[in-house]
Write a structure and sequence with these properties.
Blueprint: H1 12-28, H2 31-49, H3 58-78, H4 88-97, H5 103-108, H6 113-139, H7 144-163, H8 167-180, H9 190-209, H10 218-241, E1 250-251, H11 258-284, H12 289-309, H13 312-331, H14 337-358, E2 363-364, H15 367-377, H16 381-393, H17 407-415, H18 426-490, H19 507-557, E3 559-561, H20 566-580, E4 584-589, E5 594-596, H21 597-618, H22 622-627, E6 634-643, E7 646-653, H23 660-669, H24 681-685, H25 708-718, E8 722-728, E9 732-740, E10 745-753, E11 756-761, E12 765-772, H26 773-780, E13 787-790, E14 793-799, H27 800-803, E15 817-825, E16 828-833, E17 836-844, H28 849-853, E18 858-863, E19 869-873, H29 875-881, E20 909-913, H30 917-929, E21 933-937, H31 940-947, E22 954-957, H32 966-974, E23 984-988, H33 993-1002, E24 1006-1009, H34 1014-1025
Parallel strand pairs: 4-6, 11-19, 14-16, 20-21, 20-22, 22-23, 23-24
Antiparallel strand pairs: 1-2, 3-5, 6-7, 7-9, 8-9, 10-11, 10-17, 12-15, 13-14, 15-16, 18-19
Helix pairs in contact: 1-2, 2-4, 3-4, 6-7, 7-8, 8-9, 11-12, 11-14, 12-13, 13-14, 13-15, 14-15, 18-19, 20-21, 21-25
Length: about 1050
């Protein structure tokens, strides 16, 4: 600046320097420097945004001000405890430098085209959200959550327009935000003005796109001002009628350091939770000194932070609340319900202010509570007012020193180990969790490849052993030939040594010995590979354990204790009690249980609706409860528990219960039920979940519009949960919410149903059994609905294929046993028959997208090691969605299923028996292409073992095999009553009549030579199988 000449333009380096100086001075509480630096930062930003310059008169003033700032800093460094220097001359200099904003300059300022495209895209998305929220607000004008959402959208739109220097559009957003705040059930005219404002907004944006002059909005602005003035007059008259003399002020948030403000908002949330728990403990035990000191520490920290960021109403109320606590504890006053009631209302108001701060809306002052605190403490009202004005004038004050703590508390505080914490974005945490799951999938793929190598090594060991036997026989034969030739030669000539003694081996014998050595080397290589595979398995196992620890750690970071929501729910109960003039208290069981952050975020609104509903409809007035010999204070019990793979949340009250007759009358009046076929009481209760259905006589902000329970039901369905209701007249109502415990990683059973593979969470399975086919047919043949008995309990029996709307088939073998899984979830009991269980493994839960995400019975999907995508089934939900009632009744299964002799279509199974790996693979691939399932065996012994487990529909058989050849195996099959009718095709290189005749005498159906023609083999198989298996046709 020393060498600067006018006109002088500011650059970003100067902007950053002024902003940093302001922040450091405020944090260090150097008041003179902070005041001057704050005003300097505002002036620099105004000049930079207007693209203005400093003239020859302003530039010297700026240089003098910066020199004065340097002197202030030097003075503070040398003598910080002396009297503060005068900063009025510097303030005067800055006031003379402050530029005047010219409206025409703002309007003529051009917008960068690329910036305009980005701005319009973001605006379009936000306006779509705005329109959707306005529609919801029209249906629920008193919904505070919707109002807050609209105000957040408009605040973002306003900020974007201001950054783009679109002052007219920004002013329109601000007018719409003011109108939104006037929405309630008694004031529906506001939506007419909102529609008009939206039209004006579209005109402005259209003019911006076409680069035309913006239309004048003064007429609409005047209409809004007139409307708001009338609303204010109406509220004032109503306030006078209510004899409310308290003045409500709205405090606009400071526009200074936004990062510091956001940090304080997060810290304030944690501190208010801590202070709420401390207040609750103090109220339960008046002698709890630790709770008292914790409350004071939290309030003091909140006050200091609020002063630092300039949120005056929050700081004022916190200061007075802290003073109230100190005055009571220091003076030794008796603690009574009046004191704790006032303290609790101060805590609730602080929480409301924190919500407004988080939503970046104007903060409502707490003048009424400040007056009550003053009256309770015996302070003079004028003194309180003087303190408040002084606090407002002095925007930046030094934090008050904390009150000295007792020595015992100090020692305990020092001994407490403070754990450092790091804040991580939720999307980054989700990414890391999913990435860990991908690593797990990759490890599974490597494990599968390793298992395949091990299987090949086993085949190699078998082949090497067979080759060694063959070479041993070859050596014996060659040595016999040598001895035979030696005996012939002895008649013609005499020799001193025989051929073996002189190592005179024939070429055949040398080759056989060479092959023996090669086989030995091959065996050594196989053993070395086997050792490497075992080492790889050990490494993969270690990696699996490490990966599991990483995944578990990431999952734990997503867990939050439910206790963090308890103060909010208790505040809802207190506010609802006050509004309705009732008495009730909330007890929370299992609050320390940790739940996934996603569940906590989505379950808050349903529980709040249920709490309000329980007090409004369930809990009686104190007078009525006294007449019924009940305690005047109603009891609400919220319980959080784990039930298998589900989270169980129950809310029970001891009120009057649900009036079934009232529901029946309302349902008949609205034509929701047929009077000739009246539903049961349980079905009638479910009507309260319908949109627009309400039993309330009068419409209020709490009830009567029939949307509260509909919102609860919709939110729970969105979480793929279930809501059940039990009510006893005069005793109360219990709402039970079951939500799936959505874990990114879980143990699951991989099962088959009609050639499709599915995953079932293992935690949902109560027990497992195996049941024979003949027993299944007996169950299905019962006249009554089939039930399976297990440990004295009866489970409705149904195949999984029927739940999935798939064809249901049974194997022909009556002795074959199929897996049966038993499930218990609340009032749902089911015995589920499945085709087969493939494995039990750890899977990674993946989202299935919006299209499939609406299917409640699908929890998600997983990717197996071979790349196959498998759906994860929620069996209890699947039972509900297929019209299986909660009373363990299932619909009648089609009679075609229980015909004992009926053969149903299914995929045929072929067995390939051959000692050649190449032959088994080639034949297996051919059969699979033509619609067969294939099992293979190395020889006759292996084939017999597999026959005991699974009976094929056809057998492809080789002749020459170790241990048991084809002729022996075919003879065994034909002599067994269970297998004697199985078709057998013998495929061999022995095509002579002698071998063919022997095969036909045994009973082989067809005899083919190697190599065979594929079309000949398929036609032969079709001829043997007939038309019973049309899937087998090519």
């Amino acid at each position: 600046l020393i060498k600067a000449e006018s006109p002088f333009s500011l650059d970003k380096e100067l902007l950053r320097a002024a902003h940093s100086l302001k922040g450091c001075a405020n944090i260090a509480k150097v008041t003179p420097v902070a005041v001057v630096a704050t005003q300097l930062d505002q002036i620099f930003r105004s000049i930079y945004e207007q693209d203005s310059t400093l003239d020859e008169q302003q530039l010297p003033l700026l240089i003098a001000t910066i020199d004065g700032l340097a002197q202030l800093i030097e003075h503070h460094q040398q003598s910080p405890d002396t009297e503060e220097p005068d900063i009025l001359p510097l303030i005067d200099n800055l006031n003379q430098i402050t530029p005047a904003v010219k409206e025409e300059d703002v309007q003529q300022k051009l917008i960068d085209p690329e910036f305009l495209v980005v701005y319009l895209e973001e605006t379009d998305d936000l306006l779509d959200q705005y329109v959707q929220q306005i529609k919801q607000l029209q249906q629920q004008p008193d919904n505070a959550d919707t109002q807050q959402a609209i105000q957040q959208i408009l605040a973002t739109l306003t900020s974007n327009a201001q950054h783009a220097s679109l002052t007219t559009i920004a002013e329109l957003y601000q007018l719409l935000e003011k109108l939104t705040q006037q929405s309630d059930s008694k004031n529906t005219d506001v939506f007419t003005h909102l529609e008009h404002g939206y039209e004006e907004l579209n005109n402005q944006i259209e003019s911006l796109i076409q680069n035309k002059p913006a239309a004048d909005i003064n007429e609409f602005k005047q209409q809004v001002e007139d409307y708001l003035n009338q609303a204010v007059i109406h509220e004032s008259e109503q306030s006078q009628e209510d004899n409310s003399a308290t003045t409500v002020e709205q405090f606009t948030l400071p526009t200074g350091d936004t990062e510091l403000l956001e940090a304080f908002t997060e810290e304030c949330t944690e501190l208010l939770d801590s202070s709420g728990n401390a207040l609750k403990n103090w109220q339960q035990d008046h002698n709890d000194q630790e709770a008292t000191m914790q409350l004071q520490r939290d309030l003091h920290t909140i006050k200091g932070g609020a002063r630092l960021v300039g949120v005056t109403p929050l700081a004022d109320l916190t200061h007075q609340t802290e003073s109230l606590v100190l005055s009571v504890t220091e003076n030794g006053q008796k603690l009574n319900s009046k004191f704790f009631n006032l303290l609790q209302r101060c805590q609730d108001r602080l929480a409301d202010m924190q919500v407004q701060l988080a939503n970046k809306t104007d903060i409502t002052s707490a003048n009424d509570l400040l007056t009550e605190i003053a009256q309770f403490s015996g302070q003079d009202k004028s003194e309180l007012s003087h303190n408040k004005v002084a606090a407002i004038d002095t925007r930046i004050t030094e934090a008050e020193p904390a009150k000295a703590l007792p020595e015992t508390v100090i020692s305990e505080t020092k001994a407490t180990h403070q754990v450092e914490q790091v804040r991580v974005r939720a999307d980054l945490l989700d990414f890391l969790t999913n990435f860990a799951g991908e690593v797990n999938i990759s490890r599974d793929r490597v494990s599968q490849q390793n298992a395949a190598i091990r299987r090949q090594l086993m085949e190699m060991d078998t082949t090497v052993a067979r080759l060694q036997d063959q070479l041993r026989n070859l050596e014996i034969e060659t040595e016999t030939q040598i001895l035979f030739r030696y005996e012939d030669e002895t008649h013609s000539k005499k020799s001193e040594f025989d051929p073996l003694e002189l190592d005179r081996f024939s070429m055949m014998q040398q080759l056989s010995r060479g092959l023996t050595e090669s086989v030995s080397d091959l065996n050594d290589i196989g053993q070395s590979l086997d050792i490497l595979v075992r080492d790889t398995d050990a490494i993969l196992l270690q990696q699996s354990r490490l990966n599991t620890d990483i995944q578990q750690g990431l999952m734990n970071t997503r867990l939050l204790p439910f206790s963090g929501l308890v103060p909010r729910f208790e505040r809802i109960v207190r506010q609802t009690n006050t509004e309705l003039g009732k008495k009730s208290e909330l007890s929370v069981l299992g609050a320390n249980r940790e739940l996934d952050r996603t569940i906590l975020d989505h379950i808050v609104a349903p529980i709040e609706h249920l709490l309000r509903n329980a007090i409004a409809h369930g809990i009686e007035t104190p007078e009525t409860r006294s007449e019924l010999a009940k305690n005047e204070t109603g009891k609400l019990t919220l319980t959080i528990a784990r039930d298998g793979s589900e989270v169980l949340i129950t809310l029970a009250d001891d009120g009057q219960g649900i009036n079934i007759e009232n529901i029946r009358e309302k349902a008949l009046k609205q034509n929701l039920v047929n009077p000739d076929n009246m539903p049961s009481d349980e079905e009638l209760i479910q009507l309260i979940l319908s949109s627009g259905f309400s039993t309330a006589e009068n419409v209020s902000q709490l009830s009567g519009r029939g949307v509260g329970m509909d919102i609860v039901s919709s939110e729970i369905r969105a979480l793929k949960g279930r809501l059940s209701i039990q009510s006893v007249t005069g005793q109360g109502t219990t709402f039970s919410i079951r939500l799936p415990l959505t874990l990114s990683i879980m143990q699951a059973l991989l099962v088959n149903s009609y050639d499709q593979q599915y995953a079932i969470p293992l935690a949902t399975v109560h027990a497992g059994e195996r049941i024979a086919v003949e027993d299944i047919k007996t169950l299905l043949a019962q006249k009554n609905q089939p039930h399976y008995e297990y440990n004295g309990a009866y489970y409705p029996f149904i195949p999984l294929a029927r739940l999935l709307n798939q064809p249901f088939t049974l194997p022909d073998d009556p002795k074959l046993q199929l897996p049966l899984l038993l499930f218990r979830s609340g009032d749902i009991h089911i015995a589920l028959l499945i085709d087969s269980i493939n494995s039990n493994r750890e899977i990674v839960l993946k989202s299935v997208g919006e299209q499939l995400g609406t299917i409640a019975a699908i929890n998600g999907a997983t990717i197996l090691s071979d790349g196959q995508v498998v759906f994860i089934l929620d069996i209890p939900t699947l039972v509900n969605t297929t019209n299986l009632s909660a009373s363990n009744e299932i619909q009648e299964i089609s009679r075609s299923i229980i015909e004992l002799d009926e053969i149903q279509d299914r995929t045929p199974l072929a067995m390939v028996v051959d000692d050649s790996i190449t032959m088994r693979k080639a034949s297996g691939n051919l059969l699979k292409r033509h619609g067969f399932d294939v099992i293979t065996a190395r020889d006759g012994i292996d084939a017999v073992a597999q026959l005991n487990e699974q009976v094929p529909d056809i057998i492809l058989l080789d002749v020459e095999m170790p241990r048991m050849d084809g002729f022996e195996f075919a003879t065994l099959v034909r002599n067994n009553d269970q297998y004697k009718d199985l078709p057998i095709i013998m495929i061999t290189s022995r095509t002579g009549d002698k071998h063919r005749d022997r095969a036909m005498n045994i009973g082989v159906d067809s005899y083919m030579g190697k190599p065979y023609q594929e079309i000949d083999l398929i036609e032969t198989m079709q001829g043997l199988l007939g038309d019973n298996y049309p899937q087998a046709k090519p």
